[in-house]
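Exercise 7. Given the components listed, write out the predicted structure of the assembled complex. Treat all entries as one system.
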Amino acid sequence: MSTNNTTPVSVAAAPHVDYHHHEEPSFWRKYVFSPDHKVIGIQYGLTALFFLFFGFTLMMIMRWQLAYPEKAIPALQFVIPIAVIGLILLFLSKFKPSITMLMGFVFLGMAALVSYLTSGEERMPGGVMLPEFYNQLGAMHGTIMVFLGVVPLAVGAFGNYIMPLQIGAPDMAFPKLNMTSYWVYFIGGVTMLASFFVPGGAANSGWTSYAPLSVIATTGQTLWLIGMVFLITSSLLGSVNFIVTIIQLRAKGLTFMRLPFFVWAQFVTSFLLLLAFPPLEAAGVLQLMDRIAGTSFFMPAGLVVSGQQLPYTGGGSPLLWQHLFWFLAHPEVYVLILPALGIVAEIIANNSRKPLWGYKSLVFAVIFLGFMSFIVWAHHMFLTGMGTAISAFFQTTTMIISIPSVIILSVLFISLYGASLRFNTPMLFALAFLPMFGIGGLTGLPLGLAASDIPLHDTYYVIGHFHYVVAPGTIFGLFAGIYYWFPKFTGKAMNEKLGKIHFWGSFVCMNFIFFPMLIQGLAGVSRRLYDGGQQYAHAQGVLHLNEVTSVAAWVMALFQIVFIINLFLTLRKKEKVGDNYWEATTLEWSATTSPPLAHGNFATVPEVYRGPYEYSVPGHSKDYTPQNELVKA
Amino acid sequence: MEIPYTVTARPETGLFNAKAGIWLFLASEVMLFGALFTTYILLRIGAPEWPHGELDIPLATLNTAVLITSSITMVMSWASLMMKDFKKYRIYMGATFLLGVVFLVIKAFEYGHHFGIGELPNKSTFLGIYFTMTGLHGLHVVGGMIVNAYFWGPGSKMWKTQPERFTNRVEVAGLYWHFVDLVWIFLFPVLYLL
Amino acid sequence: METANPQEIKKHVRTYITVFVALLTLTIITVTVSYLHLNIPAAITVALLIATIKGSLVASYFMHLISEKKIIYATLVLTAVFFIALMWLPIFHHANPVIYKNVP
Ligand code: HEM
Ligand SMILES: [Cu+2]
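Answer.
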């Protein structure tokens, strides 16, 4: 329990001697089982980036099937580029042990994994994808992107690294617990990957794992559930740590209303994780019982599959799973978006050189949003035969929750008004985030109203809608964060030219990927179709868009290679940048070195005198006034 | 720089870190067991009939008494530390641990009995939810016992060097243990009596 | 840790023992009532009422919730709200269903 996880060294025992500065910790302690939030943040970041790339690769394989159904896949065209990235990284590292070398091997491993996935009789006989395998890829793409990619990057990496620095804390409140969170996440991830290798392959019932299908699915589903229990446990431990850190370890003078918005976003996110995840953990345990012990929590009586009566006593309810799943999964979509919003707000304030317009509205909106996100879940279930009164309730709460989202977006847009913007790479990503998130949000409204959801439910329109939120939305926010804080992580700034190529390429491709999905969805094409709609009369008019989407996805992958190369080339750079590279006001820039001190973050404990975004204050000599600077009128 | 407020309370909140942490953790536990209780209600409302009297009430009553007793020995172990009486602490903490063992042994008898007469989790939704809820609760008991054993044995060395911090830790372990007791207080009537 | 002197703790100990006795008594009462075989709504009301009292006793005295800090109260109130939302789930599930009439 958390009692075990306080730091081993205490103030009372050693007020003046800090042994860390004398003894160099061992390799393992320093890089692998480090309790330092910065190291853990980077571990989370690299692991999550790996999973994002892998999840994207799964989708690229699927997109082949959707664009050219029944044609053999040119597997090498997927494997070789990944292997080449690995080799490039190995050469860049000159085979000296380093992060670059490690990632080189990781990419080679991924290439091997992808070549396994694109071959084999039980997956791709003769290079043509089996429907069963398509289902595995779809389910694992969703799961990996959400639970192993975006959340660990947004919360585990950025939250872990940046939040303690922004509040002036020497570390997280429970460093060892923090380390445990990472390793539990890691085990969860390995479990998910391992599920590709069991008979029947990985989970294939969608990332939603709806019963009864999931209960009678192959072994992969059991591993999915076990993996999820690990991931949920990791998130729970992490969120306790985050909340305690924010409540207890803020620097002197840093009141709640002076917190950078990013910290607020992490704070609300942590509460969502803390209170919404446990019901899914319970549901996961119940589904495990159904699968392993043969209980019938989610199983109706008399289920017959392929002419055979299943040995379940029945008495359970498949809808119970949906309720418990969405009780988590709706708050989860805010977990996916809020940290990105936090990042974007920081970057917009910094590059507009103006205080955020309406900081307070932003904070109250995000709190209200977090609260409301717990009582909208059944808007995913309008078509389950739920009562009309209940539908009315949930569509009302859904319309209400759109208000704070609009407030947030408006605040960020208005903040741009009248500013002379600096168009650097992080700012470009942050600016692109706004309209993309806007499209994602607006296309969501028809899904929140029961009447219009009836024709749209489970079509590609839904896929287009939420990808606008999570891909050009969240992912762009996260890219913005990487470019923005990279100088803080490493002391080196990423290449702007490559950054801009990465941005414009991704921006254009993203829209070519996801806008066609909205059109296909409006034409009525269902999601999770193995052939992309070939067999459906109503899909014929929009079938050609499948190829557009797929090609755009593959082209986008090429632009991600630019990003990867930029990342590791920057690591090799010799010249260092200043501590406050962007001339920012928040503590992580104004009170620490780049990168921050290995132990304790700050040379002297910072004290805070002002709000987070005092840019261009009239009468001040500079156009930014750090939070920890005393006014010299 | 060391992490502040591991021993003393932060003035504005009045809490030391671990205490804030354990309450947040317990909040998440409330939602975990809440989901199971809501499942129970849903299954029961939907069932044409719900079995009564299949479980051993006297044995479960005894187990309730055991857990309640372990709760008071737990709080007494903390109170002993507050009164700087380490010897008593060891006795009370040891008793708490042993009562945990007794609880699990009784539970094992119950499980053994059910298994013996073929009452397995897959026989009815009632048995399913009974085994799931008590099983998960049992795991929580085991977790608490591991922590308690640690603070009774190796962990208690800290009493010599940092008594205040050690007392804090025992308080936090206690909060968890009482919560496990509290869950049982609801499980008992819901599963056995109704 | 609250700075409490031994005197105060002794007072606490007396409270603990009272609570302990109350808990045992309530356990006996609830078991006895269950043997009376009241009709189901009454039985549920009594059993849950007693369980709630017992739970509150444990939370208030053993867990010291009776004199806790504001932040903890705030967290628990928030949790209680979402807990109640969760308890509504069976009602959402069973109220006025449109299609399925014969699925339990
Ligand atoms: C830019 C790269 C991405 C592409 C090209 C892409 C493409 C797709 C497509 C075509 C589907 C529908 C598959 C089907 O219905 O058969 C899908 C499903 C899904 N995607 Fe993505 N996606 C991308 C990124 C993401 C990200 C970043 C996330 C999450 C944060 C995500 C989460 C999901 C989820 C949850 C599903 C539903 C899976 C299911 O049906 O169970 N995707 N994606
Ligand atoms: Cu939703």
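Discussion: The pocket of protoporphyrin IX containing FE (ligand 1) is lined by residues A 56, 59, 138-139, 141-142, 145-146, 150, 206-208, 336, 463, 467, 470-471, 475, 513, 527-528, 553 (CB under 6 Å). Chain B has a mean pLDDT of 95.
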